[in-house]
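USER: For my understanding, would you kindly supply a protein sequence with its structure tokens?

ASSISTANT:
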Amino acid sequence: QVQVAESGGGLVQPGGSLRLSCTASGSTLELYGIGWFREAPGKEREGVAYIINTNDASDGSTYYADSVKGRFTTPRGNAKNTVYLQMDNLKNEDTGIYYCGTASTPYYRPLHTYGIDSWGKGTLVTVSE
């Protein structure tokens, strides 16, 4: 099982941007779908973005929650062990702990927590004045 770790969280004002990284140790991430999830205080973990693995879609097909469409993107990095979550025009309600996870099954449903094989430990994003 590939191990992943998130980084790049922090405090940002509303309207600002952050870029999170999901990095694998000792492996590439090309063969995995990568999901981004967040947990807001008092709420369940929800999927916000997903990029399909390169075997199934060399064009890097992506999926986004309605709440982040047009503001978040999740490109793969030039380094094959990294995937990013670019977050622009951040809002207070984007505050939470952000996790990345890997999906290897071809039957995985994007943005769902069920079917994620490996989780990182999370990175905190706080959007506040």
Residues 59 and 70 are 19 Å apart (CA to CA). The chain has a mean pLDDT of 94. The longest strand covers residues 18-25.
